[in-house]
Amino acid sequence: LAEPQIPVTGTWDDNDFGEGEAQGNDYDCLASSQAEFVHHMSVPESDPRHPAQGDGQRFGVYGSHMFARPGPTAASAGGGGGGANGIHVINLDARSHRSPTLTTRGVPCEGAFSTMLGDEQWAWLEQELLTKKSTIKVIASGTPILPPTTRERTITDHCAYDGPGGTFDGANEAIGEGLKFTGTKYEGWGEIPQDRTRLLRLVQKSMNAGMAKRVVFLSGEQHWGELMAMKIPEDAEEEEGAAQVVYEVTASGIDQNWIEDVDNSHRVRVRSADSRGDGFYDKECNFPFVSEGVAYNDCADVFDSGMPACATRTSSDNSAADGQWGNCLPAEQELVPRDRQRYSLENKCADSYHFTCSAQANFGTMVVDWEAETITLSIRTPHHNSPMASEITVDI
């Protein structure tokens, strides 16, 4: 074997777990699927997930690993030097315990009691996030976490929906996501917003308790690649505390592209714009854009709005599409500054620079530079002229 040996870890999603999309705790072959996972990942018999544990076996493939920071030994865990807890990897199992998500599957729904993780996994996760200190926490999930509940599906199709003003609506409103916010219409935590908000608030609480400086989500399932950032709003009423920014990389490496315009209110944007002054900044500025014969590579006082604005859709010659413009979010309010982003123009959909949809394959990467105290998240497309499809760098 190569030296040093590189540990391999992970979790699963629908096609690894069962027969396909939307399956969860109603799947008939949970035990045999877990046994296959344990074999494939070379999980030792001493691990609680292994069938060798008998009656004490953990139900589900969730688990965690702690990796030390390189360099001279630190005085305390998470203290910043080598030997401290550098990266805490938490693999969630969002399949084994997951409630039915869509009424169209014909499986009995659980309404407000719907869950992504189940009680035992939630208790375990709280211990991981609130008692183990590290510089960075990486939380892996088979399905995306940050995309909000889709608005492309009839809301009553969601099993977790419990009526107007219920816990479904309340969970989205609790983190400031009204009806204008939207995400993937495919599988994701947004299908059970009660648990999505619970997870985000728990992460926020962990960060405010000093258990991590940065939290990054890693996910797959969607057959495309994208980079996301979200500010979890302050929670003054509970104990989660101050607002915190979290990030996510979604990627799927199998050779399959997915050419489709998919909205996501939390996708990273080079510059964010609203729609003709409506004040909701979820559009991507298209640069360069040409207006009245002048080319612009940044927001400018155009379109008679009286504010810096940009085109949100352009034609093949970069001319601003008629009526497709918006006022720009002030640069200092962007969660990822423009000068800390890189991207190619290959394989893009939805006029989004950090949404890679048509590559033969895409892979997500995360690189930690302990000396520079930075994290670089990227989507890689090795079969194309531009192997780096999109990338952002954030400070630890």
Strand order, main sheet: write it out: 1-2-3-4-6-5-14
Based on secondary structure, the structural category is alpha+beta
Total E-strand runs: 17
The succession of helices and strands, N to C, reads HHEEHEHHEEEEEEEEEEEEEE
Molecular shape: globular
Strand fraction: 15-25%
Specify the number of helices: 5
User: Regions with pLDDT < 50 over 5+ consecutive residues?
Assistant: 74-78
Share in helix: 10-25%
Biggest beta-sheet profile: 7 strands, mixed
The CA-CA distance between the termini, in Å, is: 33 Å
CA-based gyration radius? 22 Å
Question: What integer is the average pLDDT?
Answer: 92
What does this structure look like?
With 396 residues, the chain is α+β, with helices and mostly antiparallel strands. Helices cover 13% and strands 21% of the residues. The protein contains 5 helices and 17 strands. The protein has helices spanning 14-17, 30-40, 119-131, 167-174, 193-208; strands at residues 63-68, 85-91, 136-141, 214-219, 225-232, 244-250, 272-273, 283-284, 289-291, 294-296, 309-311, 325-327, 341-343, 355-356, 363-369, 374-380, 388-395. A 7-stranded mixed beta sheet has the order 1-2-3-4-6-5-14. Strand 16 and strand 17 form a beta hairpin. Helix 4 runs parallel beside helix 5 (193-208).
